[in-house]
Amino acid sequence: MPRKPRIAVILDENTSTDGTKYEASKNYFRAIADAGGLPFGIPYLSDVVDAAISEFDGFLSVGGRFAYPESWYMGDEISLAPYSERFEIEQAIMRGYLERDKPVLGICAGMQMLGCLYGCRMAPDVQMLVPNALTHDKRGYMHSVSLAAGSRLAEIVGLPALEVNTFHREAMAHLAPPVVASAHADDGIIEAIEIPSKRFAIGVQWHQELLAPTDHPGNGIFRGFVEASSGKP
Question: In angstroms, how far is the first alpha carbon of the chain from the final one?
Answer without folding.
Answer: 20
